Q: What sequence folds into this?
């Protein structure tokens, strides 16, 4: 990207590029569900909390009372204006909660997130196109809860990927036709490193998630085969992966190698990683975007103490743009946000500066850096490393 262009803060839809909105974990169950118009039964089965409303009290104790019930759009706060300004072609999130009336929770899980189906309007209010579901909370309310989640999303006109009524559906990608530009194909996977129980894996006729048992060469080969079976010239292929622990910036060598292999061997164009409660380093490999950890975008954690040094209350809106003909990253804008009173608001200048410094610190070893733009966003720059074997012009 031209350095001078990065300072203008101008970005939006273009016939020459496909722009996506990517967000990390969106957890709109439990406490958030309780302040929406149609809350679930507040009873939960956690070691330290027996009522989902307890998380509302914690948040109000820290940041002040909420006027309840909130409307469907409330949780998105300032993010809605950003979406309206950028007008991305696709809006994709990791939905980290069941959307269900099921009362059959997964025993021994410890944490059980759910949102009542009547609150699905809080997703349609932001015009979400796709929810990736391969994560460690989508089966918190058993198989019935997952199946109902799939049904509710489908009825709302929202596609999903990464979980299904059987193995075949869990492995099927979501496919979007972007008018006048091409297709976007989204595969979604989870690994056991983020806490997905092996028993959650979808089977031949059993609901579950698309679980990767390892990050081996054999797994890369299987994904390569699946991508080759559907990818057409001009397609942009996104692989969503829920992996790794909640805290820490260190990138696993195995994860880096796997991401590189998916791009270099399996013709994947975007690695969209999440699970960490905070944003991690960004890499551009062979002109393809790798988000190792997008961080939480929305949750009900603000009254919970611990790990304050990671600033899990700060979140990001990612807006990468790609050349439809090649899938290569053209530019990316990030908007720093904060979770406050169950809502995403613009981060303060001080918090934005802190986040910028952290991401640049982590990006230094990955060949990326962020520049502040006039509108308060960050613009990504990266080292253009020649692809091995490419012909010099």
A:
């Amino acid at each position: 990207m031209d350095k001078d262009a990065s300072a203008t803060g101008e970005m939006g839809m273009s016939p020459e590029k496909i722009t996506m909105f990517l967000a990390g974990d969106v957890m709109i169950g439990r406490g958030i569900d309780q302040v929406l118009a149609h809350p679930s039964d507040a009873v939960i089965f956690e070691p330290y909390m027996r009522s989902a409303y307890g998380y509302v009290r914690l948040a109000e104790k820290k940041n002040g009372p909420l006027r309840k019930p909130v409307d469907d759009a409330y949780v998105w706060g300032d993010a809605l204006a950003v979406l309206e300004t950028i007008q991305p072609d696709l809006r994709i999130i990791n939905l980290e909660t069941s959307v269900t009336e099921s009362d059959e929770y997964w025993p021994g899980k410890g944490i059980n997130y759910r949102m009542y189906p009547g609150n699905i309007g809080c997703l349609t209010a932001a015009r979400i196109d796709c929810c990736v579901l391969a994560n460690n909370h989508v089966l918190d309310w058993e198989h019935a809860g997952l199946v109902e989640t799939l049904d509710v999303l489908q009825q709302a006109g929202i596609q999903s990927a990464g979980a299904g009524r059987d193995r075949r559906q869990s492995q099927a990608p979501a496919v979007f036709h972007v008018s006048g530009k091409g297709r976007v194909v989204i595969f979604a996977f989870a690994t056991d490193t983020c806490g997905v129980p092996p028993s959650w894996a979808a089977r031949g006729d059993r609901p579950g998630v698309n679980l990767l048992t390892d990050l081996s060469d054999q797994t890369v080969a299987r994904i390569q085969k699946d991508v080759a079976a559907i990818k057409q010239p001009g397609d942009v292929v996104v692989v969503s992966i829920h992996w790794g622990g909640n805290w820490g910036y260190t990138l696993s060598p195995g994860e880096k190698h796997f991401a590189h292999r998916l791009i270099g061997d399996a013709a994947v164009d975007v690695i969209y990683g999440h699970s960490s409660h905070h944003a991690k380093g960004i890499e551009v490999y062979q002109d393809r975007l790798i988000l190792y950890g997008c961080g939480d975008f929305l949750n009900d954690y603000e009254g919970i103490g611990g790990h304050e040094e990671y600033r899990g209350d700060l979140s990001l809106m990612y807006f990468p743009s790609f050349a439809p003909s090649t899938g290569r990253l053209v530019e990316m804008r990030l908007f720093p946000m904060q979770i406050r009173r169950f809502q995403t608001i613009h981060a303060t200048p001080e918090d934005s500066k802190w986040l910028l410094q952290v991401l640049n610190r982590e990006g230094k070893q990955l060949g990326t850096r962020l520049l502040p733009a006039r509108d308060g966003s960050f613009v990504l720059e990266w080292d253009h490393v020649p692809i091995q074997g490419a012909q010099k012009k």
Summary: The chain has one domain: 3-382. The two ends are 20 Å apart (CA to CA). The mean pLDDT is 93. Residues 3-382 form a domain with the Purple Acid Phosphatase; chain A, domain 2 fold (CATH 3.60.21.10).
